[in-house]
Design a protein that fits this description.
The protein has 506 residues and is mainly β. Helix content is 3%, strand content 47%. It has 1 helix and 39 strands. It is globular and about 55 Å long. The N and C termini lie close together (8 Å).
């Protein structure tokens, strides 16, 4: 006899999986035994994204683009909604240099509202008082929902093109390549999407280990609000290379680091992929004039890493930069100079010795241009595109897509969506040879009006890693920003129930 409690258990697990992307279910037989069944993949039905406050100066202009790819795997027929709303407030913490107090936004009006899959929606903000955005997508707009925040500052402090993929809330983030040097002004931005306050800790690690600070402990992030922290106020020690570790004691947050340098301008530093023994950092521009690798080993063991540059035709070991030793809980940096030498590439870090796989996190600080025309961007280690990954806010000119196959060769399909103001989607297939990077001008929608999204789907082989570089030239300066593409996790495995639920008895 089958009970309604079994049905409730199954329904609850399916709902949990569809909303959160994770569920485990093992439904017993009547005799108490269980049998594994093939899991089905269903689209998620709810997802959240957080965009940090862009506030830099009164000269800044910020564009937001949200997009959901067409869903091909069935799932919820509900229309759903996808909106990016202003947070309640953005506050400065531990920052004596700033007098920005934030402002109460218009809570009744979304900054961006997406109406249908397959067509991007856009919004904009200006000035230093723009708050963080908190977004939620439901129903058919949830699977693969992505949003891009792009800020242009043409002159003055913090000039540059600053881009970041709005991030999902979490409890643990790693940011190599930050700095407390006197020439830098780096902020940690924390955004709380929930109705209750979150409490976060910020730890800093320099070349000699922990940069001790009591100020970074127990930072309260009010409900539905953003907080920014100038990291140089958390320690008295100046260090060129610093790893920032953000964790939460209660609640969850979105986290990002906004960097600014007197000479090279500003950009966002997104979180590195979770600590792993092998990392891929895709999409170093061909004309990079300076590349600096920063790595950190968070465990108890030192890490010895081999460096491999995955170029157009093969993987090579950079001369003079064959290996990097990373001491436990110490940040290591190495200047790779103009490593790409006119040919776009990607960096891969692997253990120097088999059997000694020590997890690390890493990021690249990339500079283009020379003299007073230098511009900076960051490339964190990232996972593969997996089944599908998307990046928004591509333009008719200035976009470059880098595809990297660190192991086996892979084939991907790249789809350019309709434009935010009109246009017809187009697709193109690319084959990426093993151990190489293919940098291409991505397809552009026919009759494009506005901006568009690029969706990369693995067809065979792989894994393939990807990054998009967006460039805008202002007064002779090639302002640029790089966004990596990781699996959007738009679907989730839901274990199949063993029971026949066609008839249920009490």
């Amino acid at each position: 006899m089958k009970s309604t409690s079994s049905l409730s258990l199954i329904a609850g697990a399916v709902a949990l999986a569809a909303v959160t992307g994770f569920a485990a279910l093992n439904v017993p037989d009547g005799d108490g035994t269980a049998e594994a069944k093939t899991a089905a993949r269903l689209p998620v039905e709810r997802t959240s994204l957080l965009c940090p406050a862009p506030g830099l100066s009164d000269l800044s202009e910020t564009a937001y683009t949200a997009y959901t790819p067409p869903n091909k795997s069935g799932g919820s027929a509900a229309a759903g909604a996808a909106e990016l709303l202003s947070s309640a407030k953005d506050e400065a913490k531990s920052d004596e240099k700033s007098d920005e107090k934030g402002k109460e936004p218009d809570k009744g009006k979304p900054v961006v509202s997406l109406e249908e899959p397959g067509k991007p929606a856009t919004g904009e903000a200006s000035g230093a008082d723009s708050p963080a955005l908190i977004g939620t997508a439901t129903g058919r707009l949830a699977p693969g929902w992505t949003a891009q925040q792009t800020t242009t500052v043409e002159a003055g402090d913090g000039r540059g093109l600053l881009g970041i993929n709005c991030t999902a809330p979490d409890t643990d983030f790693w940011f190599p390549a930050a700095s407390t040097a006197k020439s830098r002004e780096d902020y940690v931005h924390l955004t709380n999407p929930d109705d209750t306050a979150a409490v976060a800790d910020i730890e800093l690690y320099g070349p000699d280990g922990t940069l001790k600070s009591d100020v970074g402990e127990g930072i309260t992030v009010p409900a539905g609000s953003g907080v920014r922290v100038l990291i140089s106020t958390l320690t008295s020690k100046a260090a060129d290379d610093v790893t920032v570790h953000v964790t939460t004691r209660t609640g969850r947050v979105g986290a990002a680091v906004r960097t600014a340098d007197d000479t090279t301008g500003s950009d966002w530093l997104a979180a590195s992929a979770e600590p792993a023994s092998t990392l891929v950092l895709p999409g170093i521009p061909a004309d990079a004039t300076s590349v600096r690798l920063v790595a950190f080993a968070p465990g108890d063991d030192d890490a010895d890493l081999k460096l491999k540059l995955l170029g157009k035709s093969s993987a090579i070991t950079p001369a003079g930069h064959e290996e990097l030793h990373v001491k436990s809980n110490m940040t290591a940096g190495i200047d790779l100079k103009d490593i790409t030498r006119g040919e776009a590439g990607s960096l891969m870090l692997v253990p120097s010795e088999k059997g000694r796989a020590t997890p690390v996190v890493a990021a690249l600080r990339v500079v283009r241009g020379k003299g007073d025309k230098q511009e900076v961007g960051y490339i964190p280690a990232t996972g593969p595109v997996g089944a599908r990954a998307t990046v928004a806010d591509n333009r008719s000119k200035g976009s470059v897509l880098s595809l990297t196959a660190p192991g086996a060769a892979g084939t991907v399909k790249v789809t350019a969506s309709a434009g935010s103001g009109g246009g017809t989607p187009v697709s193109k297939t690319y084959k990426v040879a093993a151990g190489t990077t293919t940098a291409v001008t991505p397809p552009v929608p026919t009759g494009l009006k506005g901006t568009y999204a690029l969706t990369v789907e693995t067809q065979s082989g792989g894994p393939v890693h990807a990054a998009r570089t967006l460039t805008v030239t202002v007064d002779g300066i090639q302002m640029f920003t790089v966004q990596t593409l990781a699996d959007d996790r738009g679907t989730v495995e839901v274990p199949a129930a063993r029971q026949d639920l066609s008839v249920l008895d009490d």
